[in-house]
Amino acid sequence: MPTTAGSARPRLRRAAVAVAAAAAVPALSLLSMGPVVAAPVPQDGVRVPQTLRPCVERALQRAADRWFCTAEGLRESVRLLSGQSEDRFTPLATRPVHVSGQDQGRRDGEWCGDITCHRVISDYIAESVANGIYGTGHAVEGRVRFTVRTSLNGRQPRFKVSFDVMVGPAIKPMLTVSCQDSNGGLPEGGCGSWPVSPKAFKRTWTSKLIHGNRLEDDSTYHATLGAQFEAQGVPKPGGGPWTADTFKTKSWDCWTPRGTPALCEFK
Q1: Contact yes or no for 231/171 (Cβ under 8 A)
Q2: Can you give the C-alpha Rg of the chain in angstroms?
Q3: Residue 259 contacts by C-beta under 8 Å, 6 or more apart in sequence?
Q4: Residue pLDDT, tens place only, 99-138
Q5: Both ends of the chain: CA-CA distance in Å?
Q6: pLDDT value at position 72?
Q7: CA neighbor of 131 nearest in space, from 105, 151, 111, 149
Q8: How many CA atoms lie within 13 A of 216 on its CB side?
Q9: 87-117 b/e with 16+ CB inside 10 Å = b?
């Protein structure tokens, strides 16, 4: 059986009065930022970075059954009058940061700080990281990090996914890596999808290498990571599953230079 969080896991709560007393912090523009972000704001044992604080404060005020914050926005599971739940997304005015692989050599996701980042390590390898905070109602339950490392083997993309529990209980995720073809501005087309559902884990899980399909068309491609997860020991309905915002990786181009073999490279 998977390992679950201990029964003595502290409840990571923040009182509503603390929300009202907190200093207002505007949503940060990430276009001009590097991987080092503003000083984090501690909240009853949960380190809430400045980049995620506007989303977390909004989530705590709205107190949906389940909510998930990234620098890009807030995803909530709202209970309808019918008793069913509906996922809703509220975007924030931020964009992912693009980081130089030459300047940031670490491979554990720390190079990204606490935002959503992409870095090109070489013409054929790129890494994308998304950080998130999740909770129930007025409670912050934990922090997680997703990493997708994409390597190009000729016309075949390969993916390795990591899921880190930064703070909080053990997690049981349900993940799907999908390949997307931009189709030159037309509606995107799919080029493969690969679900992975590991057992519950407490700290870090990394997938085996996922071999994508050979990409025959000359086009621009990217991958997405869809994620749902349950937090072990959190009472339902707040216990999940949480739905994280779909995470988009760095794009790459495939083309056939005249007189040479077809190839794919990161943009």
Answers
A1: yes
A2: 19
A3: none
A4: 654 445 555 556 787 788 899 999 999 999 999 999 988 8
A5: 43
A6: 84
A7: 111
A8: 3
A9: eeeeebebebbebebeebeeeebebbbbbbb
Token digits for 253? Answer: 């181009």
DSSP H helix total and E strand total for the chain = 2, 19
Beta-carbon contacts of residue 81 (< 8 Å; ≥ 6 apart): none
3-state secondary structure of 20: helix
Tokens of 108: 């554990």
The pair of structure tokens assigned to 245 is 């915002």
Which helix (H) or strand (E) segment holds residue 41: the answer is strand 41-43
The residue type of 93 is A
* Dihedral of the alpha carbons of 147, 153, 157, 163, in degrees to the nearest 10: -20
Instruction: Give CA–CA dist 74/125, Å, rounded.
Output: 30
Can you tell me which residue has the tokens 């890494």? 127
Of residues 251, 245, 243, the one with CA closest to residue 72: 245
